[in-house]
Amino acid sequence: QFWKCINETQTKAVDSKTWKSCCNHAATDSCHSGCELAEAASELVEHCRQSDEMYLFDCVEIKQEREECCGLARKPECHNMCRRWVMSPMQVSKSLLANTCNSPVINCLSTLIPRVPLRQPHKYLHCCEHSNVPSCKDACRSSNTVLWGRERGNFIVPGRIDGTTTTQS
């Protein structure tokens, strides 16, 4: 309970630094400026119209979900590694993350990892053929076919902890 409390407190203290990286995804200058000035993610609605800034809001939601997973860490090493992954998922080795963290953190992250919002998912349809796992390839094709032409609310999972690659919405 001690480390959970410490991690939750630390997560709250550094939350703004995590989601702030999403400000670069703002479509309008006024939203970008408001995002940079906001102290909490909840303030974004004061500066940005969610219907116009879906990519930004998707990014913020993903960062916050990942932070919640990091709050399950029992050791500071895991919490720090998890936060590094939250900030830059492609910069932290999945195996290092898996070896550093306890099962609750890994299980939590496995449901999220790493959802990256796609601006034009149909452009990635050809990538489905590069998966070595038939079920992942089928899921990728299915999701891209169903979502053809939609530009927001789609996510690709480029490297899950279990090593598969797929697309989800």
Explain this structure:
- The chain is mainly α and 169 residues long.
- It has two domains: 2-110, no CATH class; 116-168, no CATH class.
- The protein is built from eight helices and three strands, in the order H-H-H-H-H-H-H-E-H-E-E.
- The chain has helices at residues 2-19, 29-37, 44-47, 54-70, 76-87, 94-100, 103-110, 134-146, and strands at 116-117, 155-157, 166-168.
- It has a three-stranded antiparallel beta sheet.
- Helix 1 runs antiparallel to helix 4 and helix 4 packs antiparallel against helix 5 (76-87).
- It starts with a helix and ends with a strand.
- This is Reversion-inducing cysteine-rich with Kazal motifs N-terminal domain-containing protein.
- Pfam families: RECK-like_N.
- GO terms for molecular function: metalloendopeptidase inhibitor activity.
Provide the fold topology.
Blueprint: H1 2-19, H2 29-37, H3 44-47, H4 54-70, H5 76-87, H6 94-100, H7 103-110, E1 116-117, H8 134-146, E2 155-157, E3 166-168
Antiparallel strand pairs: 1-2, 2-3
Helix pairs in contact: 1-4, 4-5
Short description:
Residues 20-61 form the Reversion-inducing cysteine-rich with Kazal motifs N-terminal domain. The chain has helices at residues 2-19, 29-37, 44-47, 54-70, 76-87, 94-100, 103-110, 134-146; strands at 116-117, 155-157, 166-168.
Name the descriptors:
single chain; 169 residues; mainly alpha; 2 domains; 3-stranded antiparallel beta sheet; 8 helices; 5% strand; flat; disordered C terminus
